[in-house]
Specification:
121 residues; 56% strand; mainly beta; single chain
Length: 121
C-alpha cells in the first residue's frame, strides 16, 4: 500500500526554521520525483521543491531559493524526503504536501495528507 506521511509542521516565528519530513513507502522509488507543494486557502497549490530518485537532481521555486533545501534518506523499503526551511517568512504559511510521481508514467502519482506550517510572531 502506497503511503506518504508528512510531519514536522507547526508554528514558528519569522526568521525561524522548520524541517518537514515525508516518509514514503509501498512503491518502487526508482524513477520517481518527490515534490513538496504548498497551498494557501483560496490559492492554487504551488511547487516548492523537488528531488529525483535516483540522481538527486533538485529544483526550487524562486520564492524559496537560498532558504529551503530538499534532501532524501533511504532506508529499507522507505524513502524519507526532507524539506529544511530556514529564514521563514509569513508568506511561507501554508499547508505543505508531499507528492510522489513517476517520471515517465505520470498517472502514478501519490499524495500525502499535508502538514500545516504557520509563520507568525
Amino acid at each position: 500500500q502506497v503511503q506518504l506521511v508528512e510531519s514536522g509542521g507547526g508554528l514558528v516565528q519569522p526568521g525561524g526554521s522548520l524541517r518537514l519530513s515525508c516518509a514514503a513507502s509501498g512503491f518502487s522509488f526508482s524513477n520517481y520525483r518527490i515534490t513538496w507543494f504548498r497551498q494557501v486557502p483560496g490559492k492554487e497549490r504551488e511547487m516548492v521543491a523537488l528531488i529525483t530518485i535516483p540522481g538527486d537532481s533538485s529544483s526550487y521555486a524562486d520564492s524559496v531559493k537560498g532558504r529551503f533545501t530538499i534532501s532524501r534518506d533511504n532506508a529499507k523499503n522507505t524513502v524519507t524526503v526532507y524539506l529544511q526551511m530556514n529564514s521563514l517568512k509569513s508568506e511561507d504559511t501554508a499547508v505543505y504536501y508531499c507528492n510522489a510521481q513517476h517520471i515517465h508514467e505520470l498517472d502514478y502519482s501519490y499524495w500525502g495528507q499535508g502538514t500545516k506550517v504557520t509563520v507568525s510572531s
